[in-house]
Amino acid sequence: MVKIGNIELPDFPLLLAPMEDVSDPPFRAVCKEYGADLMYTEFISTEGLIRDAIKSRQKLDIFDYERPVGIQIFGGDEEAMALSAKIVDATQPDLLDINFGCPVKKVVCKGAGAAVLKDVDQMVRLTKACVDNTSLPVTVKTRLGWDERSKNIEEVAERLQDVGIQALSIHGRTRAQLYKGEADWTLIAKVKNNPRIKIPIFGNGDIDSPQKAKEYKERYGVDGIMVGRAAIGYPWIFREIKHYLATGELLDPPTIQERVDACRKHLQGSMRWKGEKLGILEMRRHYANYLRGLSHVKEYRNRLVNTMDAAELFSILQEVEMHYAAV
Ligand SMILES: Cc1cc2nc3c(=O)[nH]c(=O)nc-3n(C[C@H](O)[C@H](O)[C@H](O)COP(=O)(O)O)c2cc1C
Is the CB of 212 under 6 A from ligand 1? Predict the structure, then answer.
């Protein structure tokens, strides 16, 4: 069993990575169904939370069926972090996660996300502001360092543990790498093998198959794995990894019925949570992923992204199911 504060997770938990514009409640519901053990919201700006921006507030929405679930925040100001920790606390998720890994300019420019990797003292202050203002377990997600010459994750892990975080997820890239190249898990393993480190260490970066999950589990010895991109349109990745770790055998891929069914549920959830119009619009980015690999699927995909009519969408999905079940 892996424990984060008083949250009990199964042995070698599989985490759904926080992903902006992706890991919203409708997507999380599908990932939960197929085996994600711990999930996070999209990152939420502390500035937005304090301003009471609608977009930030909406990201706080969590539901009992998805527990355990963490709310992720980012920011570069101690006071804003402290206030946001209080807001998150009142929302009662299972944990509060801090993002010190986001590489995008608009975040880094404000001294938040991965920018904080350049100033570990500041990172400790921002983290302490959260720890001191919530009764929830606080966790952190970050990268190996700012760039190739400043990979400071070993120091970061010790200092953050000392200030009270209860788990650390590490994406095996630097900020400078963005998403390029291959994630390097060797430093993640070093953090995990540091005898001073007692908190769970979760590895993240490029896990896209059950075989890779098993190989990385064994080679790097982490306490669990966080999966991001591979789960987009393919939430079965969680159950496939679990099955392979437990039995050494590969599960059959989802049937066309399962694929269309998950897509349908995602669409229904999206319309319910965001309202019909926005739900339909935002679902458009997901069809290609749910239908990936099906031959000559372009025509269906085009129709799915060109209608605003809910009944028509479900009818096209029905057609897809029938067509591909027959081939
Ligand atoms: C579309 C997208 C949005 C992301 N948004 C966030 C975010 O809000 N917070 C965060 O900590 N990481 C974010 N990430 C990074 C992922 O959580 C993860 O660290 C990264 O994708 C590497 O894992 P993977 O190779 O399994 O995808 C995002 C990644 C993607 C692709």
Answer: no
- Whole-model pTM? 0.97
In three-state form (DSSP H/G/I as H, E/B as E, the rest C), the secondary structure along the chain is CEEECCEEECCCCEEECCCCCCCCHHHHHHHHHCCCCEEEEEEEEHHHHHHCCHHHHHCCCCCHHHCCEEEEEECCCHHHHHHHHHHHHHHCCCEEEEEECCCCHHHHCCCCHHHHHHCHHHHHHHHHHHHCCCCCCEEEEEEEECCHHHCCHHHHHHHHHHHCCCCEEEEEEECCCCCCCCCCCHHHHHHHHCCCCCCCEEEECCCCCHHHHHHHHHHHCCCEEEECHHHCCCCCHHHHHHHHHHHCCCCCCCCHHHHHHHHHHHHHHHHHHHCHHHHHHHHHHHHHHHCCCCCCCHHHHHHHCCCCCHHHHHHHHHHHHHHHHHC
pLDDT tens digits for range 157-208: 999 999 999 999 999 999 999 999 999 999 999 999 999 999 999 999 999 9
Question: Which residue CA neighbors atom 31 of ligand 1 most closely?
Answer: 229
CA of 229 to the centre of ligand 1 (A): 7
- Structural domains in the chain, CATH included, are 2-247 (3.20.20.70), 256-326 (1.10.1200)
